């Protein structure tokens, strides 16, 4: 999965725009500005609860075309958050998508790695349309240590999984093998236990499951920064609470696609195991004798957006809209984002806070989650 999606030369994400009508799938920020605007308002509200620490970092993992970040920066400027009060950090593995993000978000041409100091941890930097510094990183662990608002929208589902199955002899891993008769790929079971089998919880009751060690490592990196340096995390994705078994699939031209056919030409994805993400987000602080981070959610996208005021925002946009086609598109975007049979129930929101926020959050719980 890692090779197929992010191989430097042939990886699915590495050299093309995969989003929208002409791509393979569409994401919520690409459907309507309302999505990013409401997330921006949520971020400003929660940052305010933390005492508006400056300078802070706004970090997005897997920003795609940069549409969500563009909507957030526009709202931040409306709230008159000074450009010198924060910097933008994008964790993006695809150089092609990095260019698309730059076109979308920046006014001037970026400085590439060759012009940056040798020891810099980012590979590109520029200035956003609103004047804040914007930098690109390969890994979350390279980000500067400071108070950070983390966002991950449809990021964790793109990280590789291992598939485990319980058979009479115990746990085995599903591997991918080359069928030498017709040179097609096929699933096979490992003969013995593989190291990935250790990733299952001891009290696991499912006979089949997917584990994503990379998701847990990235969640812990985000969680330990929030714990030590302050910050908030908002993870949005399709997923489950540790109860689903077989969700690995491909998408091509907006249709399901067999992941083993023509690898590299289709998106590969698996539902996020939010129970595992929450576990990683609240450990290892207990080991260090500190109080654990706090998590809220998951809640369905429909509930989060409705509580944040998407109906009101739709009405506002419709009131200033003179074009019937645009009005129809706005209503249809609202339906796609919130209807339970579209994206309303499939997508979940999870928030992450440091333990020092406990008392404040008891009094002022995070909007959208209640
Ligand atoms: C499904 S897209 C989501 C894009 C965007 N967040 C949206 O919702 O429109 C996944 C994004 O994560 C990036 N990505 C995938 N694997 C990554 C990794 N290991 N490290 C950093 N970025 C990664 C992809 O290049 C892409 O930008």
From TrEMBL:
Listed EC numbers: 2.1.1.320
InterPro entries xref list: NDUFAF7, NDUFAF7_sf, SAM-dependent_MTases_sf
Name of the gene this protein is made from: EOG090X06OK
Annotated GO biological process: methylation; mitochondrial respiratory chain complex I assembly
Family: Belongs to the NDUFAF7 family.
Name used for this protein in its record: Protein arginine methyltransferase NDUFAF7
Pfam annotation, one family: Methyltransf_28
Gene Ontology molecular function, alphabetical: protein-arginine omega-N symmetric methyltransferase activity
GO cellular component terms given for this protein: mitochondrion
Signal peptide: none
Keywords: Methyltransferase, Mitochondrion, Transferase
Provenance organism: Daphnia hispanica
Function: Arginine methyltransferase involved in the assembly or stability of mitochondrial NADH:ubiquinone oxidoreductase complex (complex I).
Lineage: Eukaryota, Metazoa, Ecdysozoa, Arthropoda, Crustacea
Cellular localization per UniProt: Mitochondrion
Record field: catalytic activity: L-arginyl-[protein] + 2 S-adenosyl-L-methionine = N(omega),N(omega)'-dimethyl-L-arginyl-[protein] + 2 S-adenosyl-L-homocysteine + 2 H(+)
PANTHER family: PROTEIN ARGININE METHYLTRANSFERASE NDUFAF7, MITOCHONDRIAL
Keyword Mitochondrion: yes
Main location: mitochondrion
Source species, domain of life: Eukaryota
